[in-house]
């Protein structure tokens, strides 16, 4: 029997303990998941895209990039928690294989069987395996956006039934995850006096986003405007179809534009304010960064740099390297529907996250192993940077774990009428400059431009 949506939502009972960061909670429950799978005799397991609710009633697989990031972060946590002497095989991005498998999904018995009928790549080595079980989950974002409650679920081929894995837990939300949830905010000028501590700043950001989301009044004043309509926004996003500006409509605190038609030219224009602050902007379409198509948390993505005094920056495609871009192309209705698969990209959204350049002293980093592992989990990918002479993919669990932690030291701690898709490749030279972002974004904006037509599978 399939666990229905109401039953799943009933499992999300908030914990009474002080919420910890999501990454640390995932590391904790990953250890429990590894033990469960070992006790069951599973040899290989995969993690599938989560479903999320914001209202406590309906589950969605397209809330934002968070649906995929929860699965990817759990994958990393499982690798870090695995037993190097007798490891369970952790599949690398099972969601991507599910996306390519017709009719595969974890919401029906027939769909679950299709998930077991294909081979998947392991996170290390060259082997492809058939999974013994899959882990997925559901998550509920609180109305005030301050917490996220998560329940893991597991199913195997023999029983073909979704079952809870462990108890639900509640984690503290972070401002940098608001863009992953499709939420918008603007904090320009709020922290200029430098008097607020970091924890208080985070609380202010979450409150601002919740007021916009819930259309709550700010004292005796009207709710804060969506950043798309905020004259005080540090960066303005302008969307053009065939050279004409498309008005952004606000409904219930959310921003929308009409769908572009097949063949229309799409341009995204960044316009900065007249301050002396240097900004770095992460601009994503369908969850993919417009630089190198990165699918990473915004803080780890490459950014478009807006220096003081510069004019509008026009982005009309994906910058795939320092010399070339793939021009945006509006897909046909048929192509668009093919990309609406439950496990596919986060279709129909344009997101913009703005970071100020970090000034003054950097906050000392926590050097503990737990902090390094949490940073690796937050990054949400098993991809690593090999040293010269090393294989592209680590050959063992131990080699993968070592490289993930090495990347944490080297990269993460340094801070460094249809859908819009990729079209023709053109020459496009960009200059790479140094930019150290303040980890707390000053603005995030999500604009929806496409409504999926496919019914849920």
Would you give an account of this structure?
The protein contains 9 helices and 24 strands. The C terminus is likely disordered. The longest helix has 19 residues. The chain has 457 residues and is α+β, with helices and mostly antiparallel strands. The protein has 2 domains: 169 residues, ABC-type transport auxiliary lipoprotein component (Rossmann fold), CATH 3.40.50.10610; 213 residues, no CATH class. The strands form 5 sheets. Strands 10, 13, 14, 16, 17, 18, 22 and 24 form an 8-stranded mixed beta sheet that branches. Strands 1, 2, 3, 4, 7, 8 and 9 form a 7-stranded mixed beta sheet that branches. A hairpin with a 2-residue loop joins strand 16 and strand 17. Helix 2 packs across helix 8. The radius of gyration is 22 Å and the shape is globular.
Instruction: Compute the number of structural domains.
Output: 2
Beta fraction of the residues?
Answer: 25-35%
Number of helices: 9
- The Rg value, from CA coordinates, equals 22 Å
| Total strands | 24
State the secondary-structure class: alpha+beta
* Overall outline: globular
Helix content: 10-25%
* Biggest beta sheet attributes: 8 strands, mixed
Summarize model confidence as the mean pLDDT.
86
How far from one another are the termini?
17 Å
Q: Segments where pLDDT lies below 50 for 5+ residues?
A: 412-416, 453-457
């Amino acid at each position: 029997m399939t666990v229905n949506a109401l039953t799943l939502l009933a499992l999300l009972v908030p914990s009474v303990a002080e919420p910890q960061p999501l990454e640390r909670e995932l590391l904790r429950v990953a250890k429990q998941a590894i033990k469960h799978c070992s006790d069951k005799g599973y040899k290989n397991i995969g993690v599938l895209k989560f479903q999320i609710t914001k209202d406590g009633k309906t589950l969605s697989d397209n809330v934002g990039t968070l649906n995929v990031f929860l699965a990817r972060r759990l994958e990393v946590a499982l690798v870090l928690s695995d037993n190097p002497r007798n490891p369970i095989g952790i599949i690398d991005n099972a969601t991507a294989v599910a996306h390519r498998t017709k009719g595969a999904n974890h919401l029906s018995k027939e769909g679950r069987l299709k998930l077991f009928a294909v081979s998947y790549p392991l996170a290390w080595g060259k082997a492809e395996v058939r999974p013994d079980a899959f882990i997925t989950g559901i998550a509920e974002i609180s109305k005030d956006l301050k917490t996220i409650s998560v329940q893991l679920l597991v199913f195997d081929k023999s029983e073909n039934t979704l079952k809870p894995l462990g108890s639900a837990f509640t984690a503290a939300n972070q401002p940098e995850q608001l863009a992953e949830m499709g939420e918008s905010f603007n904090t320009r000028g709020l922290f200029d006096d430098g008097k607020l501590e970091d924890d208080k700043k985070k609380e202010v950001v979450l409150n601002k986003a919740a007021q916009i989301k819930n259309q709550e009044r700010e004292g005796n004043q009207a709710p804060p405007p969506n950043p798309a309509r905020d004259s005080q926004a540090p960066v303005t996003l302008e969307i053009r179809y065939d050279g004409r500006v498309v008005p952004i409509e606000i409904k219930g605190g959310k921003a929308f534009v009409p769908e572009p038609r097949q063949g229309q030219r799409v341009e995204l224009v960044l316009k900065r304010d007249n301050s002396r602050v240097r900004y770095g902007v992460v601009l994503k379409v369908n969850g993919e960064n417009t630089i190198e198509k990165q699918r990473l948390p915004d803080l780890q993505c490459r950014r478009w740099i807006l220096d003081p005094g510069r004019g509008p920056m026009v982005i009309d495609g994906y910058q795939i390297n320092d010399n070339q871009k793939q021009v945006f192309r509006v897909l046909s209705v048929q192509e668009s529907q093919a990309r609406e698969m439950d496990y596919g990209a986060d279709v129909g959204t344009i997101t913009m996250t703005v970071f100020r350049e970090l000034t003054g002293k950097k906050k000392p980093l926590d050097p503990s192993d737990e902090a390094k592992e949490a940073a690796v989990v937050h990054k949400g990918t098993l991809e690593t940077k090999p040293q010269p002479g090393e294989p592209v993919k680590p050959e063992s669990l131990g080699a993968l774990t070592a490289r993930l932690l090495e990347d944490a030291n080297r990269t993460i701690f340094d801070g460094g009428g249809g859908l819009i898709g990729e079209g023709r490749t053109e020459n496009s030279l960009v200059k790479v400059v140094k930019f150290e972002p303040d980890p707390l974004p000053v603005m995030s904006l999500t604009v929806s431009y496409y409504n999926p037509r496919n019914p849920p599978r």
